[in-house]
């Protein structure tokens, strides 16, 4: 470790490195209300078009997610970005996702007229999903309207929204997706994967060494045709071309993307992915990822791939010596199969 420390100190003491660090624009990497507003407005311009293409939808999601990532924590801009995305998700008939965003906005605003609009939007989503909770939420709307001190203009606006929402409630029209067969099959497939994950990877497999094949996976019992035998977590790296459309940790489409609380470089599809990323690697990379994006021209996924591997190795083995020792063990296996 003494050698490592000397090397690090020597590198950082180099006048060229000192000058580079001094000239870095730290403010560019911080969250910005103004930047969030500008990006949100760009999304609004596309959303207000009379007709949308699939590309438009992807761009709208991307811009609203980026606006969320750039917005300071608990700010007005964060609230507005979540609000606009909830309207967009309603437009796409993604009612569950819309409700999630509505709940986020409700935590960030106390304005009565805004809360009336949000609860009415929630009633529309619950009605489309066939949830009996829609009536209770509508009653909340009426209560807020009766108790709130609204201006004349706000009263007029709220009355129109409530009238429209009441007609939706009375019609009680359930939304039926056109791809329901696919959605049902996907749900069944997801349940199979979850069940397999709960049993562990080695209930029917083992890792062992054989003379002919080397090290590999071998069955410990007869396996049925089509049986799922192994579910393995993938090692993923962020999509650098569309970083705000996909989850930074798992690459799912980030319909309900939530931001890192510190940096503005990434979006996560859920708190589960956010917490996992922070625990595994993002707590370290968060502080300097922004500089990679800003100052490395034509950067690629390989940079994040290498960065993630280095962080994971140091978290597991703590020192360079231990990492080198482990790598030598792997190299000593020669051409044998290594899992």
Automatic annotation (TrEMBL):
One of its GO terms (molecular function) is methyltransferase activity. Residues 247-286 form the MYND-type domain. It comes from the Eukaryota. Transmembrane segments: none annotated. Keywords: Metal-binding, Methyltransferase, S-adenosyl-L-methionine, Transferase, Zinc, Zinc-finger. GO terms for biological process: methylation. SUPFAM superfamilies: SET domain, TPR-like. This is MYND-type domain-containing protein.
